[in-house]
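Recall the central idea of this unit: under ordinary conditions, the amino acid sequence of a chain determines the structure it adopts. In this exercise we apply that idea directly, starting from the sequence alone.
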Amino acid sequence: MQVGLIGCGNMARALARGWRRPVLCSDPIAERARGLAEEVGGEALASNAEVARRSDLVVLCHKPAQLREVAAELAPEARAVASILASIPLKALRLCYPERPVYRFIPSLPVEVRQGAVVQGIETVRAAPDVAEGGERGEDALDAEVTQLFSQLGTLVALDDSLVDVATGLMSCAPAYVALVAEAQVDAGVRRGIPAHLGAQLVVQTLAGTAELLRERGYDTVAVRREVTSPGGLTARGVAALERAGLRSAFDDALDAVLGQGT
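Accordingly, the structure predicted from this sequence is:
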Protein backbone atom coordinates (compact mmCIF):
# COMPACT_ATOMS: atom_id res chain seq x y z
CA MET A 1 0.00 0.00 0.00
CA GLN A 2 1.41 3.37 -1.04
CA VAL A 3 0.76 5.93 1.68
CA GLY A 4 0.56 9.66 1.00
CA LEU A 5 0.78 12.26 3.76
CA ILE A 6 -1.02 15.57 3.40
CA GLY A 7 0.94 17.80 5.74
CA CYS A 8 4.37 17.09 7.22
CA GLY A 9 4.15 18.41 10.77
CA ASN A 10 5.22 16.66 13.98
CA MET A 11 2.59 13.91 13.94
CA ALA A 12 3.02 13.21 10.22
CA ARG A 13 6.76 12.79 10.82
CA ALA A 14 6.07 10.49 13.76
CA LEU A 15 3.80 8.32 11.61
CA ALA A 16 6.32 8.13 8.77
CA ARG A 17 9.15 7.22 11.12
CA GLY A 18 7.01 4.57 12.79
CA TRP A 19 5.94 3.00 9.51
CA ARG A 20 9.55 2.81 8.31
CA ARG A 21 8.49 2.85 4.68
CA PRO A 22 8.81 5.30 1.79
CA VAL A 23 5.94 7.79 1.67
CA LEU A 24 4.67 10.41 -0.71
CA CYS A 25 4.08 13.75 0.94
CA SER A 26 3.15 17.39 0.44
CA ASP A 27 3.19 20.44 2.68
CA PRO A 28 2.69 24.19 2.25
CA ILE A 29 6.32 24.51 3.37
CA ALA A 30 8.08 22.66 0.56
CA GLU A 31 11.33 22.29 2.49
CA ARG A 32 9.53 20.46 5.28
CA ALA A 33 8.10 17.94 2.82
CA ARG A 34 11.51 17.45 1.17
CA GLY A 35 13.12 16.90 4.56
CA LEU A 36 10.64 14.19 5.50
CA ALA A 37 10.97 12.47 2.12
CA GLU A 38 14.74 12.45 2.43
CA GLU A 39 14.57 11.04 5.96
CA VAL A 40 12.21 8.12 5.37
CA GLY A 41 12.42 7.67 1.62
CA GLY A 42 9.72 8.36 -0.91
CA GLU A 43 9.08 11.65 -2.60
CA ALA A 44 7.91 15.18 -1.84
CA LEU A 45 5.34 16.24 -4.42
CA ALA A 46 4.29 19.66 -5.59
CA SER A 47 0.57 19.38 -4.83
CA ASN A 48 -1.92 17.56 -2.63
CA ALA A 49 -3.75 16.33 -5.73
CA GLU A 50 -0.59 14.68 -7.06
CA VAL A 51 -0.09 12.88 -3.74
CA ALA A 52 -3.67 11.60 -3.96
CA ARG A 53 -3.28 10.43 -7.56
CA ARG A 54 -0.22 8.34 -6.73
CA SER A 55 -1.34 6.96 -3.35
CA ASP A 56 -3.53 4.05 -2.34
CA LEU A 57 -4.32 5.81 0.95
CA VAL A 58 -3.98 9.51 1.74
CA VAL A 59 -3.55 10.41 5.40
CA LEU A 60 -4.82 13.85 6.35
CA CYS A 61 -2.25 15.48 8.64
CA HIS A 62 -3.07 19.11 7.88
CA LYS A 63 -4.79 21.59 10.21
CA PRO A 64 -8.42 20.74 10.98
CA ALA A 65 -9.58 24.19 9.85
CA GLN A 66 -8.35 23.35 6.34
CA LEU A 67 -10.65 20.32 5.97
CA ARG A 68 -12.90 21.65 3.19
CA GLU A 69 -10.14 23.52 1.39
CA VAL A 70 -7.91 20.45 1.17
CA ALA A 71 -10.82 18.15 0.34
CA ALA A 72 -11.59 20.25 -2.72
CA GLU A 73 -8.16 19.27 -4.05
CA LEU A 74 -8.09 15.65 -2.88
CA ALA A 75 -11.62 14.32 -3.22
CA PRO A 76 -11.61 13.94 -7.03
CA GLU A 77 -8.31 11.99 -6.89
CA ALA A 78 -8.25 10.07 -3.60
CA ARG A 79 -8.89 6.32 -3.55
CA ALA A 80 -9.21 6.12 0.25
CA VAL A 81 -8.76 8.64 3.05
CA ALA A 82 -7.56 8.31 6.65
CA SER A 83 -7.72 11.32 8.94
CA ILE A 84 -5.75 12.11 12.09
CA LEU A 85 -7.41 15.52 12.42
CA ALA A 86 -8.52 16.41 15.94
CA SER A 87 -12.23 17.07 16.52
CA ILE A 88 -13.29 16.13 12.98
CA PRO A 89 -15.84 13.26 13.23
CA LEU A 90 -16.41 10.58 10.65
CA LYS A 91 -19.66 12.22 9.57
CA ALA A 92 -17.82 15.40 8.53
CA LEU A 93 -15.15 13.39 6.73
CA ARG A 94 -17.76 11.47 4.75
CA LEU A 95 -19.42 14.71 3.68
CA CYS A 96 -16.10 16.04 2.37
CA TYR A 97 -15.05 12.75 0.74
CA PRO A 98 -18.25 11.20 -0.60
CA GLU A 99 -18.13 7.79 -2.27
CA ARG A 100 -14.69 7.11 -0.81
CA PRO A 101 -13.66 4.78 2.04
CA VAL A 102 -12.95 7.07 4.99
CA TYR A 103 -11.17 6.23 8.25
CA ARG A 104 -10.51 8.20 11.43
CA PHE A 105 -7.50 7.62 13.66
CA ILE A 106 -5.98 9.61 16.52
CA PRO A 107 -2.34 8.64 17.20
CA SER A 108 -0.02 9.64 20.02
CA LEU A 109 3.53 10.86 19.50
CA PRO A 110 5.24 7.57 20.57
CA VAL A 111 4.03 6.00 17.32
CA GLU A 112 7.41 7.24 16.12
CA VAL A 113 9.03 4.38 18.07
CA ARG A 114 6.10 1.97 17.55
CA GLN A 115 5.04 2.39 21.17
CA GLY A 116 2.10 4.68 20.56
CA ALA A 117 -1.55 4.47 21.48
CA VAL A 118 -3.81 4.78 18.44
CA VAL A 119 -7.57 5.21 18.60
CA GLN A 120 -9.75 4.33 15.63
CA GLY A 121 -13.16 5.94 15.43
CA ILE A 122 -15.83 3.53 14.27
CA GLU A 123 -19.57 3.67 13.81
CA THR A 124 -21.48 1.18 15.94
CA VAL A 125 -23.94 0.64 13.10
CA ARG A 126 -21.96 0.88 9.91
CA ALA A 127 -23.49 2.53 6.89
CA ALA A 128 -23.72 0.71 3.57
CA PRO A 129 -20.42 0.67 1.63
CA ASP A 130 -19.74 3.97 -0.12
CA VAL A 131 -17.90 2.37 -3.02
CA ALA A 132 -19.86 0.09 -5.29
CA GLU A 133 -16.84 -1.10 -7.24
CA GLY A 134 -15.39 -4.19 -5.61
CA GLY A 135 -18.40 -4.59 -3.32
CA GLU A 136 -18.29 -5.33 0.38
CA ARG A 137 -15.50 -7.89 0.03
CA GLY A 138 -13.17 -5.29 -1.52
CA GLU A 139 -13.94 -2.78 1.17
CA ASP A 140 -13.48 -5.36 3.93
CA ALA A 141 -10.03 -6.17 2.54
CA LEU A 142 -9.14 -2.47 2.50
CA ASP A 143 -10.44 -2.08 6.07
CA ALA A 144 -8.14 -4.88 7.20
CA GLU A 145 -5.14 -3.43 5.38
CA VAL A 146 -5.64 0.06 6.81
CA THR A 147 -6.17 -1.29 10.32
CA GLN A 148 -3.02 -3.40 10.01
CA LEU A 149 -1.08 -0.34 8.85
CA PHE A 150 -1.99 1.67 11.94
CA SER A 151 -1.61 -1.35 14.23
CA GLN A 152 2.11 -1.39 13.38
CA LEU A 153 2.49 1.80 15.40
CA GLY A 154 1.62 0.43 18.84
CA THR A 155 -1.65 -0.43 20.57
CA LEU A 156 -4.76 0.17 18.47
CA VAL A 157 -8.10 0.61 20.25
CA ALA A 158 -11.39 0.96 18.37
CA LEU A 159 -13.98 3.25 19.96
CA ASP A 160 -17.33 4.60 18.92
CA ASP A 161 -16.65 7.82 17.05
CA SER A 162 -18.52 9.83 19.69
CA LEU A 163 -15.82 8.91 22.24
CA VAL A 164 -12.76 9.72 20.14
CA ASP A 165 -12.43 13.29 21.43
CA VAL A 166 -12.41 11.99 25.02
CA ALA A 167 -9.75 9.44 24.05
CA THR A 168 -7.73 12.26 22.48
CA GLY A 169 -7.60 13.98 25.85
CA LEU A 170 -6.41 10.76 27.49
CA MET A 171 -3.69 9.63 25.09
CA SER A 172 -2.90 12.08 22.32
CA CYS A 173 -2.19 14.86 24.83
CA ALA A 174 -0.62 12.48 27.34
CA PRO A 175 3.01 12.55 26.12
CA ALA A 176 3.14 16.21 27.17
CA TYR A 177 1.60 15.33 30.54
CA VAL A 178 4.01 12.46 31.13
CA ALA A 179 6.96 14.65 30.14
CA LEU A 180 5.73 17.29 32.60
CA VAL A 181 5.39 14.70 35.38
CA ALA A 182 8.91 13.43 34.65
CA GLU A 183 10.25 16.98 34.63
CA ALA A 184 8.60 17.72 37.99
CA GLN A 185 10.10 14.57 39.53
CA VAL A 186 13.56 15.36 38.17
CA ASP A 187 13.35 18.94 39.45
CA ALA A 188 12.36 17.66 42.90
CA GLY A 189 15.49 15.49 42.90
CA VAL A 190 17.69 18.35 41.69
CA ARG A 191 16.53 20.53 44.59
CA ARG A 192 17.82 17.80 46.88
CA GLY A 193 21.17 17.27 45.20
CA ILE A 194 20.72 14.69 42.40
CA PRO A 195 22.23 15.87 39.07
CA ALA A 196 19.52 16.45 36.47
CA HIS A 197 20.89 14.02 33.88
CA LEU A 198 21.08 11.19 36.43
CA GLY A 199 17.67 11.98 37.88
CA ALA A 200 16.22 11.94 34.36
CA GLN A 201 17.64 8.46 33.71
CA LEU A 202 16.12 7.15 36.94
CA VAL A 203 12.70 8.74 36.39
CA VAL A 204 12.33 7.89 32.71
CA GLN A 205 13.40 4.28 33.16
CA THR A 206 10.99 3.93 36.07
CA LEU A 207 8.15 5.32 33.94
CA ALA A 208 8.99 2.97 31.07
CA GLY A 209 9.36 -0.05 33.34
CA THR A 210 6.14 0.71 35.19
CA ALA A 211 4.24 0.93 31.90
CA GLU A 212 5.50 -2.53 30.96
CA LEU A 213 4.67 -3.87 34.41
CA LEU A 214 1.11 -2.53 34.13
CA ARG A 215 0.72 -4.40 30.84
CA GLU A 216 2.00 -7.59 32.49
CA ARG A 217 -0.52 -7.07 35.31
CA GLY A 218 -3.43 -6.68 32.89
CA TYR A 219 -3.54 -2.88 33.32
CA ASP A 220 -4.47 -3.29 37.00
CA THR A 221 -3.22 0.01 38.40
CA VAL A 222 -4.43 -0.73 41.92
CA ALA A 223 -2.52 -4.03 42.02
CA VAL A 224 0.74 -2.37 41.00
CA ARG A 225 0.29 0.42 43.54
CA ARG A 226 -0.31 -2.11 46.29
CA GLU A 227 2.83 -4.05 45.36
CA VAL A 228 4.90 -0.90 45.92
CA THR A 229 2.99 0.58 48.84
CA SER A 230 3.56 -0.86 52.31
CA PRO A 231 1.11 0.31 54.98
CA GLY A 232 2.54 3.38 56.69
CA GLY A 233 5.65 3.23 54.50
CA LEU A 234 7.51 5.75 52.37
CA THR A 235 5.42 5.21 49.24
CA ALA A 236 2.17 5.47 51.20
CA ARG A 237 3.26 8.85 52.53
CA GLY A 238 4.27 10.00 49.05
CA VAL A 239 0.99 8.89 47.46
CA ALA A 240 -0.97 10.60 50.22
CA ALA A 241 0.92 13.84 49.53
CA LEU A 242 0.08 13.62 45.81
CA GLU A 243 -3.59 13.02 46.63
CA ARG A 244 -3.64 16.01 48.99
CA ALA A 245 -2.08 18.13 46.24
CA GLY A 246 -4.99 17.27 43.94
CA LEU A 247 -3.36 14.96 41.40
CA ARG A 248 -6.63 13.29 40.40
CA SER A 249 -8.57 16.52 40.11
CA ALA A 250 -5.73 18.06 38.09
CA PHE A 251 -6.02 15.34 35.44
CA ASP A 252 -9.81 15.62 35.49
CA ASP A 253 -9.52 19.38 34.95
CA ALA A 254 -7.03 18.79 32.12
CA LEU A 255 -9.49 16.52 30.31
CA ASP A 256 -12.28 19.07 30.77
CA ALA A 257 -10.00 21.74 29.32
CA VAL A 258 -9.20 19.60 26.26
CA LEU A 259 -12.91 18.98 25.70
CA GLY A 260 -13.72 22.66 26.08
CA GLN A 261 -15.62 22.07 29.33
CA GLY A 262 -13.31 23.93 31.68
CA THR A 263 -14.22 27.14 33.42
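The chain has twelve helices and eight strands.
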